[in-house]
Write a structure and sequence with these properties.
This protein is of the alpha/beta class and about 325 residues long. Helix content is about 30%, strand content about 25%. The strands form two sheets. It has an eight-stranded mixed beta sheet, with helices on both faces.
């Protein structure tokens, strides 16, 4: 996976959360939220990370940004291993990586004005004086298509779509290179989703941004992403360039996910065959042996229970973890 154009390289990243029980709060197990994922993101691209709810997508995004410290593995950003940075050196790196959160209602402080919210990163990192901050906040609000005259208002005075734009403006305050978009449209009305996606695409072109776009809406991911990785129960199942993955999915889980995406042509839709997965997603506390997906896979064989499938490249830039491919 070596490439000079790589901005972020994630190698065997693991994040386990301890489970405590009893009077003395002893550890009785771990939640395998992210279990050894490996991929890289090139400068200027949008890397889509998809999978059903609870598969570890958001945890992966937060662990990459070191909001959660990884249990094992490395996250190399611009040649620096973030997992080894502490204190001031990590703080300086944070200026170049920001996050757009999923819920625009929970991610903005209701007691702060928009000017204070968007200007807070500049205050925390001591980047500008108060007059400059005001000018920068107005510039950022203008950038995300909000009236700078609204900067003295509070979050409750805005709609969900406007709040998400405020969140985007805050994420852009420090001129970052890399943004983790953690399901930035899932809490919004469908009519507003397209506006926010178009805004993200325009900002990417204008400012040369690189995105990790986390979502479970597969059609939206196809629209915005350059490459897509499919995640299931803390592990990556498949990764490929967007059109390659959507037209030739190799992993049974990718095939099942894509069979559920509706097609606007009624003739094609009538002939398509839906793959219905049996059973529930296993618990991340006690994931299945071998392949994570084997308990629900229609093609599972004996080897799937005995060996963890190798993460391998089966075609140029098309990676898959399956014994049967």
């Amino acid at each position: 996976m070596s490439d000079n154009n790589v901005l972020l390289s994630v190698d065997h990243l693991v994040k386990h959360f301890p489970i405590m029980a009893g009077v003395f709060q002893r550890q009785v197990g771990v939640v395998h939220a992210v279990d050894g994922i490996t991929f890289n993101i090139k400068k200027g691209e949008t890397f889509g990370l998809v999978g059903e709810s609870g598969c570890g997508k958001s945890t992966a995004g937060r662990t990459i940004l070191q909001l959660y410290r990884p249990t094992a593995g490395s996250v190399v950003f611009s040649g620096e291993n973030l997992a080894k940075l502490r204190g001031e050196s990590l703080r300086r790196m944070r200026q170049r990586m920001q996050m757009i959160f999923q819920d625009p209602y929970a991610s903005l402080n209701p007691r702060m004005t928009i000017r204070e919210i968007v200007g807070e990163p500049l205050v925390v990192h001591d980047m500008m004086k108060s007059k400059e901050i005001e000018d920068r906040v107005n510039q950022l609000l203008d950038l995300v298509r909000l009236n700078p005259g609204f900067s003295s208002r509070y979050p409750h005075e805005f709609s969900g779509g406007q709040r998400q734009r405020i969140g985007i403006a805050r994420a852009l305050a420090l001129n970052p290179d890399f943004l983790v978009c953690d399901e930035p449209i899932s809490a919004l009305d469908v009519s507003i989703q397209a506006q926010v996606i178009n805004l993200l695409e325009e900002l990417q072109e204008q400012l040369g941004l690189t995105y990790l776009f986390i979502a479970h809406d597969l059609s939206m991911v196809r629209h915005i992403s350059t490459r897509v990785a499919v995640m299931y129960l803390g592990a990556l199942m498949e990764m490929a360039p967007r059109d390659e993955l959507y037209e030739h999915p190799l992993h049974p889980y990718s095939q099942a996910l894509l069979s559920a995406v509706p097609v606007p042509d009624p003739f094609i839709e009538e002939k398509r065959q839906r793959i219905i997965l049996e059973g529930d997603v296993p618990s991340p506390v006690n994931p299945p042996s071998g392949c994570r997906f084997r308990t629900r896979c229609p093609l599972a064989q004996k080897i799937c229970a005995e060996q963890v499938p190798e993460w391998r490249e089966v075609a140029p830039d098309h990676w898959v973890a399956c014994h049967l491919v």
